[in-house]
Amino acid sequence: MTSLAIVERAYRGAVEVAYFDALFLGIEIHRQLGLDVLLRGEAVTYALEAAPAPPVRIGGHLLETLGAPRDDLLRLREAGVGIWVEEDGLAGLGIGRDRLIDGARCAAPGELAARWPDYDRIFYL
Q: What is the mean pLDDT of residues 16-31?
């Protein structure tokens, strides 16, 4: 048995996640307990195939403390974490499932909720 982490809220700002974000926490949860991740709402954008975000410059200063949720999600995938993306979240943003990273699976509305008994624990990150 494994755990399920549900992520509904997308990136909330550099100050909030400068030191430790939800998906980074998922790496440690997986190490200890095993993990699947379900992305819902705007968080589905973490699983889109896209070029890396360019660095942010303000004047002559380069900001290096910005989080990179997609990078953390890719690390989770490489560690063997199951990545699930709710179809409703994609549809609500007008995004097709063809834009998902390799290994991400779509979940119909309520599909994972019906499988909750298969998990030892469920986290909302």
A: 74
